[in-house]
Amino acid sequence: MPVGVARFCFSNFPEPNLKLIKGKRDVMAETAIDLSEELKASPELWMNLQTQLDLAAALKKRSA
User: Fold this and answer.
1) Which label site among 9, 19, 24, 33 has the fewest CB atoms less than 10 Å from its CB?
2) Over the stretch 20-45, which tens digit does the pLDDT of each residue have?
3) Are residues 18 and 8 in contact, defined by beta-carbon separation less than 8 angstroms?
């Protein structure tokens, strides 16, 4: 999603969720619910994406 589109889509989100878009914050349960309501995808999808990101980072760190 282009940054301009993301900013428009999430312009009504609270500031902590805007940090998520900028990659400065992890997806937490409340954020997953907010995203699911806004983007019509399940909260589980957003939580699973965060889990996959965390796992990839841990594997990369371990192999370094």
Assistant:
1) 24
2) 766 777 888 988 998 888 888 999 99
3) no
